[in-house]
Amino acid sequence: MDTLRRRFEHFLEQRNFATEALGALEARTGVEKRYLAAGAVTLLSLYLLFGYGASLLCNLIGFVYPAYASIKAIESPNKEDDTVWLTYWVVYALFGLAEFFSDLLLFWFPFYYAGKCAFLLFCMSPGPWNGALLLYQRLVRPLFLKHHAAVDSAVSHLSSRVLDAAAGITRDAPPSLSPAQKGK
């Protein structure tokens, strides 16, 4: 618990939008920003547990910050952060796909959105315990390496069939008349 508190305090010492907003609130109210941040986290957690629209809040948490961090990573000269956020988006997409097919069942589980939000926060956490990197290395990458040749072959075959069908449709379509030809 002490390490979690130290990480929380370290986060509050960094300069970013959230800590600047907390600093401004601290100056106005006189309440320390660590208490303000703890209160905000508590309110968000309670809303995820009991609030209406928890799915929207959870999806915003899982999308807004990672999108912002991805844009920052693209604009930075360091390519390592690009890999971190690309990995997050791969895991996020696979999770979204799995959730699409299981949402009718998962929706009925109590506190589902709190668990989903915790999973997404785990996936975007910095450092060696980045959930997206762990899931990618242990699940996604081995499956990709095992099946990518078959998927590439199927996609190539499908794209050639689609191109052939499109060429056949355009070849068999009656020629359209130009406006000048219609008047004659």
Give an overview in words:
The protein is elongated, with a radius of gyration of 24 Å. It has helices at residues 2-13, 17-29, 33-50, 54-75, 80-106, 112-124, 131-172, 179-182. Helix 2 (17-29) packs across helix 3 (33-50), helix 4 packs parallel to helix 6 and helix 5 packs antiparallel against helix 6. 82% of the residues lie in helices and 0% in strands. The chain has eight helices and no strands. The N and C termini lie far apart (85 Å). The longest helix is centred in the C-terminal third of the chain and has 42 residues, at 131-172. The protein is mainly alpha-helical and 184 residues long.
Q: Briefly, what is this?
A:
The chain is an all-alpha fold.
